[in-house]
Specification:
The complex is a heterodimer.
Chain A (H helix, E strand, L loop, with lengths): L5 E7 L17 E6 L5 E16 L30 E7 L5 E6 L1 H12 L2 H6 L3 H4 L5 H7 L4 E5 L4 H4 L4 E2 L6 E7 L2 H4 L17 E15 L2 H9 L2 E16 L3 E6 L6 E10 L17 E4 L6 E5 L2 E8 L2 E2 L6 E2 L1 H6 L4 H9 L14 H5 L27 E5 L15 E7 L7 E16 L2 E5 L1
Antiparallel strand pairs in A: 1-9, 2-8, 3-6, 3-7, 3-9, 4-5, 4-8, 10-20, 11-19, 12-18, 12-20, 13-14, 15-16, 15-17, 15-19, 20-21
Chain B lengths: L11 E8 L6 E2 L3 E6 L5 E2 L5 E9 L9 E3 L9 E8 L5 E5 L2 H12 L2 H11 L33 E6 L14 E2 L6 E7 L2 H4 E3 L5 E2 L6 H4 L1 E3 L7 E5 L11 H4 L11 E5 L5 E13 L9 E6 L16 E2 L2 E2 L1 E6 H4 L5 E15 L2 H11 L5 E15 L5 E6 L6 E10 L18 E8 L2 E9 L12 H13 L16 E4 L15 E7 L6 E16 L2 E5 L1
Parallel strand pairs in B: 13-21
Antiparallel strand pairs in B: 1-22, 2-22, 3-11, 4-10, 4-22, 5-9, 5-22, 6-12, 7-8, 7-11, 14-15, 14-21, 15-18, 16-17, 16-21, 17-18, 19-20, 23-30, 24-29, 25-28, 25-30, 26-27, 26-29, 30-31
Classes of the chains: A alpha+beta, B mainly beta.
């Protein structure tokens, strides 16, 4: 009997392999992986979804993004989140069908989290490109889309992201389901920025050669016996729940029953609803309120509508901020919205410690569009061009002290958003609630407390 | 982010506003006062920050100068001193002096690109060197199509959220601070004068005399004299990025109405041309390839010793006229800075009942509640330029010292728009060595002469000593670029986490050796230390 623990890399093919192609248009739009129940420890943070990505036009040809004369053949993924933008919905359950974690609008969540955790240098230097299949710039992402590209991405979910190894016997194996994003969500043309790129070319993406990999620790035989006799345990992790609202007025309150007892923070992003599931726009962008640019060759939503105030309420009381976040002057003068930025960064990470995020003055203000387009944007000198696409977020932290958070069971969360919007243009607000989850294992029964 | 907290009990908190003593306008040089009431109980200093709006008080004399906050510190440079007292104003708990100088240095070594961007977003740090992108300037101002339009160059106000570099109310204080044990807190913040933290973007168009930098920095003109109008557009690198009419005013951004303009004539002499009466933005009509600025002088250019013409200065065969204003004239009107909507955003915490009881019980004992904060004591010494070798005594009596950081500042600098008042000076320093308890530390003098070379190189030991010193005081070092421009003498007094008793050894001394020093210096020494605040049955005590 060996007393040596062995580490191995486990590779798992999708259960629903079919013809090996995963796609909305020409393949299966859902990926399922089954990790069997076994006396091994999984290093959850090492789990990666690996594969190859191909982007094609309706006629099966690849996009031609480097040919400015041929606007009808453009198409590429969101440059900031890359392959993560292809995952619409992620579910982690055990082999017996009990769900541990389920994240809707996973791709939008990635937009918020990655903007707060990846440094500008990652995008400029390509640090994130390798694994997430993202480049940070439209130009490079466009070039990448012309060829088959490979990727190796981790899943941004709490169950897998903790430091503690996962006892695959105790959790009774895992069943991971990834629902893919629609083609017109994941792919975009340049319509938003270039008037001539006005086309719906029916492009689609296809994932092939998919494999799930993770590091597993194989305990000694004695330890394996102990694992198999373990029937009761608790497992704690932080997770995200998502909520969706549509704003159509200049004084809008989104009220949500988030129903989480240990709410650590919330982060929100928004985008004009028109941009979602639309080849003409990047559905992953995080923008503030927009209105039509009447001066553009083709009417497009791209003139910033000033945001005035954001208020966070818990059960009708202002919490955790005793005050509104007022942006009126900053938005009018197009200067840094310091307090909103401070609180938004603090919502998920500790703002005083956070040393990695994509935000700067230019990504906050975005490119000057519309009537002011002839003038000049403020920008950080090393960040140029389409890096300036806005990264607008808002949110608050409820507990950076104990990390346990506030109880929202039976107490609604409300976010009041006041702006100068008069057009009634619908804007989609995605709210992601970070909360602490506890799974209790008891003789094969699983109970989840959130 | 995904790791769950090991705790089960929530610690409720909320951010609330503590207003300043008067909710009106503050100006540079004023003092802000705050009172954190004792009923706020406990405060999370990491999530406490100072919020205000800052703008430049433009007037007829200044509104053509495009300005920025000192790029090293942003709005942190506004602060000169911070004093924190207990709620009864009887005991000074913390005293931070020469705050801006310290933050300017530590900001440099602690930044990476994301942190710089964070400071840009929240602290008003200016990352651009381009006039047109300055945050005080309205980059979205309408086009200046009509001539004779003059725009206010600094119309914006910046929203600022400043984390304080304080041991009690700053992010370095990682523990809840029991405000109620001190009957509340009172904080006073003395503000620097504007000349210390408000800077211009470029030396363009400024010169002291003909022997200085006038033609390197001044502005090309093509209009031959005599004429009341000077048609100007920039030729310097700074202006390569100027592409619009509004930005073409940046050519003249250091010249304002009422200035006396000088020019350099064929014989290389300086001639007064006249006083600026107005500016105009002129369209791009040949011979001007781009929009440019016209200055109208109060009197036509008519030099006494005719014939003298502008343009006359030639470089590589190209005629380039040169005009400039004197730097002293430029600095005569340093604008005031206005600070309004001042709020201290305090994270008020309701701690677990057990902690509150524990503190309440401990206060009744002789040992009491002991709170250690990491703070900086400031000491100052003067070093004359004539001193080749100097040894200054730093009378620190800190019993829990962690590190020492010495900043040699040029003591002859005026506080104005063109002088960098927050940078240190090398002044040809050759080496240094500390003496602690009669022993030289390090055992051999630390060479610093490479930093002063024409093409500076790094003195590795000096940089390593500085890195250790910063780290010992809790400052994460992420950047070691350009040590010659951010010079400081550092010494870690104890390994990270440890302390050293300077009281028992009577402080420390710093010996410096110079080769060809030219300026009188102010040596600002910060001793990073743990300060122990004790609340016991006898009252409140501060132990150094």
């Amino acid at each position: 009997m060996s007393n040596t623990r062995v580490k191995e890399v486990i590779q798992i093919n999708p259960t629903n392999m079919g013809n090996g192609k995963f796609s909305f248009k020409d393949g299966t739009p859902q990926i399922e992986f089954d990790i069997p129940m076994m006396p091994k420890y999984m290093d959850g943070s090492s789990l990666r979804i690996n594969g190859k990505c191909n982007i094609k036009l309706a006629n099966g040809n690849r996009p031609s993004n480097q040919n400015p004369a041929n606007d009808a053949t453009r198409g590429y993924l969101d440059p900031r989140t890359g392959i993560q933008s292809l995952f619409d919905y992620v579910s982690i359950a055990n082999q017996e069908g009990q769900t541990y974690e389920m994240i809707k609008n996973y791709n939008r969540m990635a937009s918020s989290i990655m903007a707060k955790s990846n440094s500008l240098n990652s995008y400029l230097g390509g640090g994130e490109n390798v694994t997430s299949g993202s480049c940070g710039k439209n130009l490079q992402q466009g070039k990448q889309a012309q060829l088959e590209s490979s990727f190796s991405v981790k899943l941004l979910c709490g169950f897998l992201g903790g430091e503690s190894p996962i006892d695959l016997h105790l959790v009774r194996g895992l069943h991971i389901v990834i629902q893919l994003s629609p083609d017109n969500y994941a792919l975009q043309t340049d319509f938003w920025t270039e008037p001539t790129s006005n086309t719906d070319n029916g492009m689609y993406y296809q994932l092939t050669d998919l494999k799930l990999t993770f590091d597993a620790l194989i305990p000694t035989a004695q330890e394996q016996n102990a694992m198999m006799s373990l029937t009761q345990s608790e497992w704690e992790y932080n997770s995200f729940s998502s909520f969706y609202n549509v704003m159509t007025s200049n004084d809008f309150t989104a009220t949500m029953n988030i129903n989480t007892s240990k709410t650590i923070g919330i982060t929100c992003n928004m985008i004009p609803s028109l941009f979602l599931n639309n080849y003409l726009y990047n559905s992953q962008m995080c923008l503030q309120t927009l209105k039509l640019d009447a001066n553009a060759t083709a009417n497009r939503l791209r003139v910033l509508v000033p945001v005035k105030e954001i208020t966070f309420l818990r059960g009708g009381l202002r919490q955790p901020l005793d005050f509104e976040i007022i942006s009126t002057t900053s938005q009018t003068e197009q200067t840094a919205d310091a307090q909103r930025e401070w609180e938004a960064t603090n919502s998920i990470y500790e703002v005083w410690n956070n040393a990695h995020f994509i935000k700067d003055l230019r990504t906050q203000l975005s490119l000057p569009r519309g009537v002011a387009a002839a003038n000049i944007a403020r920008y950080q000198t090393s960040v140029i061009g389409n890096d300036a696409i806005q990264s607008y977020h808002f949110g608050v932290s409820y507990d950076h002290l104990a990390g346990v958070g506030q109880n929202f069971k039976g107490t609604p969360l409300a976010i009041r958003f006041q702006s100068d919007m008069t057009s009634g243009e619908p804007h989609s607000i995605f709210t992601f609630v970070k909360h602490k989850n506890t799974i209790i294992f008891n003789n094969g029964a699983v109970q989840i407390q959130n | 982010m995904f790791n769950a907290s090991p705790y089960e009990t929530a610690v409720l908190s909320k951010s609330t506003i503590v207003p300043s003593d008067h909710q009106q306008l503050y100006r540079d040089g004023d003092t802000m006062r705050f009172e954190i009431p004792s009923f706020m109980s406990y405060v999370d200093a990491r999530q406490t920050y100072l919020k205000f709006r800052i703008n430049i008080q433009d007037n007829d004399l200044t509104n053509h100068i495009r300005l920025k906050l000192d790029p090293k510190v942003g709005a942190q440079g506004v602060i000169d001193r911070i004093r924190i007292y207990d709620g009864n104003n009887t005991i000074q708990l913390e005293n931070l002096e020469n705050y801006a100088e310290r933050v300017a240095l530590t900001n440099h070594y602690s930044e990476n690109q994301s942190i710089l961007a964070k400071r840009e977003l929240t602290e008003g740090v200016e990352t651009t060197t381009n006039f047109a992108n300055g945050q005080f300037f309205n980059a979205y101002a309408p086009d200046l199509t009509p001539v004779n339009t003059v725009i206010n160059q600094n119309p914006n106000s910046l929203e600022i959220c400043l984390p304080l570099h304080s041991g009690i109310l700053g992010p370095s204080n990682k523990k809840l601070f029991p405000v109620e044990l001190f009957d509340g807190l009172r904080m006073e913040i003395d503000l620097n004068k504007a000349g210390k933290f408000l800077k211009n973007f470029s030396p363009m168009g400024l010169a002291t005399d003909v022997g200085g930098l006038p033609w390197a920095n001044s502005i090309a003109i093509t209009t031959a004299a005599p004429s009341a109008n000077l048609e100007c557009w920039g030729t310097s690198v700074e202006n390569d990025e100027t592409v619009t009419e509004s930005s073409s005013t940046t050519n003249m951004s250091n010249i304002k109405i009422g200035d006396t303009v000088s020019g350099i004539t064929a014989d290389g002499l300086v001639t007064l041309l006249g006083t600026v009466a107005s500016f105009e933005i002129r369209p791009s009509v040949l011979p001007y390839a781009s929009p440019h600025t016209r200055i109208t002088l109060t009197a036509p250019y008519a030099p006494a010793a005719a014939p003298k013409y502008l343009p006359v200065w030639t470089t590589a065969g190209d005629p380039l006229g040169q005009i400039f204003i004197t730097t002293s004239q430029y600095n005569n009107n340093v604008p005031r800075v206005e600070i309004q909507d001042v709020e201290l955003i305090v994270k008020q915490v309701v701690p677990p009942a057990g902690l509150m009881k524990q503190y309440a019980d401990a206060v009744q004992t002789e040992q009491g509640v002991q709170i250690d904060i990491t703070t900086f004591e400031t000491y100052r010494n003067n070093i004359q330029a004539s001193e080749t070798v100097s040894q200054v005594q730093i009378p620190s009596y800190n019993r829990r010292a962690k590190s020492v950081l010495c900043l040699p500042m040029n003591n002859q600098n005026a506080e104005n728009l063109t002088t960098d008042n927050l940078s240190t000076t090398l002044d040809n320093i050759k080496e240094y060595q500390f003496y602690i308890n009669g022993q030289p530390q390090p055992t051999r003098a630390v060479a610093t002469d490479d930093l002063s070379k024409t093409i500076p190189t790094c003195n590795q030991v000096a940089l390593w000593e500085l890195t250790k010193s910063l780290a010992s005081s809790g400052i994460g070092v992420r950047k070691l670029d350009e040590p010659e421009k951010h010079f400081a003498i550092g010494r870690s007094l104890a390994k990270q986490g440890g302390v050293y008793n300077l009281k028992d050894v009577g402080g420390l001394a710093l010996k410096q050796e110079y080769t060809g020093a030219v300026v009188n210096k102010l040596l600002i020494t910060y001793v990073g230390s743990l300060r122990r605040l004790v609340v016991n049955a006898s009252g409140k005590v501060v132990e150094l």
